[in-house]
UniProtKB/TrEMBL annotation:
<keyword id="KW-0560">Oxidoreductase</keyword>
<keyword id="KW-0288">FMN</keyword>
<dbReference type="Pfam" id="PF00296">
    <property type="entry name" value="Bac_luciferase"/>
</dbReference>
<dbReference type="InterPro" id="IPR051260">
    <property type="entry name" value="Diverse_substr_monoxygenases"/>
</dbReference>
<dbReference type="InterPro" id="IPR036661">
    <property type="entry name" value="Luciferase-like_sf"/>
</dbReference>
<feature type="domain" description="Luciferase-like">
    <location>
        <begin position="31"/>
        <end position="396"/>
    </location>
</feature>
<dbReference type="InterPro" id="IPR016215">
    <property type="entry name" value="NTA_MOA"/>
</dbReference>
<keyword id="KW-0503">Monooxygenase</keyword>
<protein>
    <submittedName>
        <fullName>NtaA/DmoA family FMN-dependent monooxygenase</fullName>
        <ecNumber>1.14.-.-</ecNumber>
    </submittedName>
</protein>
<comment type="similarity">
    <text>Belongs to the NtaA/SnaA/DszA monooxygenase family.</text>
</comment>
<dbReference type="InterPro" id="IPR011251">
    <property type="entry name" value="Luciferase-like_dom"/>
</dbReference>
<keyword id="KW-0285">Flavoprotein</keyword>
<dbReference type="GO" id="GO:0004497">
    <property type="term" value="F:monooxygenase activity"/>
</dbReference>
């Protein structure tokens, strides 16, 4: 008897706007504002036209600095995430609205209420990428959480998410009923009552916002260490993946699914989503040449210097960006040269040694290395080639989809929607129309039952890496 064919997976797509950084060519004449609502509206409505699952907005709570001065690779001015998402709810109908929101500097009651309100306003399309703070530099703006020890930040964030879930569950799904005169009354007089006590929070009262259309907003997290993978498999609806090649991504995907299954969750409960970019051309050669030009404009000599300074923690301005790597060792114990950027490499000596081997093997300059190691998953080719590669990556369980960003804001996504999306739809890998009403519906993630604890309990919570 032949084995039944594996069902074709639907490709999950998110549209990413992260502000000015080395992925965005802010100096391009066609680039628009990074903070105007028209930019967010254009990206979101384009994504909805392409039947994407959600719009994703990153967050920056401090302007990044180099040796005490703001550097021009960053955005000067960052709007608050929630008002932008709430405004986008009014100009979209189906698109999920996901924001990065910090658990270190907010309070459970306040943020749970804001997210529940967004879920109501959008008809069930809210999502939350949970992050913690990572440095006292950012904490100076708040004079509180940035000075927590690392383990306390995670303790606080774990309790924060557990408390938020209790608040969202404090209203039974059938708490409100209509009366004959068109009004409403409470079926449950104790609706909204809550009490939560832990090491970080001791709160009680009555939550003002009824249970949202999704029950809980969709929760996105990340975790690469063994402990992080376990915690994310227990508590996340979707997890970010840092792996750019199929060979690296497949073991991570299998591991996350196996951990989630061992914790009692149904197969496919945790969606795995790497970030990615794309470069298109009429021919593959044209796309490759265009990609090379874009990469060199994304990572200027100064940008390459700053990216490597985040690991070396030394002033590298005296080194030629198109010359060899610095011949000095990192100085992790010294004053931070770069402030406000997440430290993604925990062992700078091992990282630099690995980079020197890579540069020697491939003949990389300082700038070439920065382009290689600080890039995202990249799909380069004709629209048909890019559609093939995205689909193959998902069908072969490298991921469940991608969070796509473009080098050009806000119009860069248009080309993908106009040329690649129809090809994915033709092969049945991307919806032609939205079928669900909520973000959970469209992602294929079940709505949590009211008053049902999350698998693993509140202790098994893991957080995304900090926002940058």
């Amino acid at each position: 008897m032949s084995t039944p064919a594996k069902p074709r997976k639907q490709v999950i797509l998110g549209a990413y706007v992260g502000g000015v950084n080395h992925h965005t060519i802010w100096s391009d004449p066609a680039a628009g504002s990074q903070i105007a609502f028209s930019t967010f509206r254009h990206v979101a409505t384009t994504a909805e036209r392409g039947r994407f699952d959600f719009f994703f907005l990153a967050e920056g709570l401090a302007l990044r600095e180099r040796q005490g001065r703001i550097f021009d690779q960053d955005i000067v001015g960052r709007p608050d995430t929630l008002p932008v998402l709430a405004a986008l709810a009014a100009v979209t109908e189906h698109l999920g609205l996901v924001g990065t929101l910090n658990a270190t500097f907010n309070e459970p009651y306040e943020l749970a209420r804001q997210l529940a309100s967004l879920d109501h306003l959008s008809g069930g399309r809210a999502g939350w990428n949970v992050v913690t703070s990572f440095d006292a530099f950012t904490g100076r703006n708040f004079r509180r959480g940035g000075f927590l020890a690392r383990e306390q930040r995670y303790e606080r964030a774990g309790e924060f998410l557990a408390a938020a879930r209790q608040l969202w569950d404090s209203w039974p799904a059938d708490a409100i009923a209509a009366d004959r005169d068109g009004g409403a009354f409470l079926r449950h007089p104790d609706a909204g009552s809550f009490a939560f006590s832990g090491e970080q929070f001791d709160i009680q009262g009555r939550f003002t916002t009824p249970r949202g259309p999704q029950g809980h907003p969709v929760i996105l997290q990340a975790g690469v260490s063994p402990q992080g993978r376990d915690f994310a498999a227990a508590g996340a609806d979707a997890i970010f993946s840092p792996y750019r090649t199929l060979a690296e991504a497949q073991p991570f995907y299998r591991d996350i699914q196996a951990r989630a299954t061992r914790l009692g969750r149904p197969p496919g409960s945790v969606k795995v989503l790497p970030s990615a970019s794309f470069v298109l051309g009429d021919t593959e050669a044209e796309a490759v040449e265009r990609h090379r030009d874009i990469a060199r404009r994304q990572v200027t000599g100064q940008t390459a210097q700053i990216l490597l300074e985040s690991v070396w923690n030394r002033d590298l301005s005296g080194y030629d960006p198109d010359g060899p790597l610095p011949d000095i060792d990192p100085d992790p114990a010294g004053p931070r040269v770069i402030q406000g950027r997440a430290v993604l490499h925990q062992d700078p000596f091992a990282t630099v040694a690995e980079w020197r081997e890579l540069a020697a093997a491939r003949g990389y300059s300082l700038r070439d290395l920065a382009i290689h190691v600080f890039g995202r998953t990249e799909f380069v080719g004709t629209p048909a080639q890019v559609a093939d590669r995205i689909d193959a990556f998902v069908q072969q369980d490298g991921s469940d989809g991608f969070i796509l960003g473009s080098h050009l804001v806000p119009s860069g996504l248009d080309e993908f929607v106009d040329t690649v999306v129809p090809l994915l739809q033709e092969r049945g890998s991307l919806r032609a129309e939205y079928e669900g009403h909520t973000l959970r519906d469209n992602l294929g993630i079940p709505t949590p039952a009211a008053h049902t604890p999350v698998a693993g309990g509140p202790a098994q919570i893991w957080l995304s890496p900090p926002s940058t």
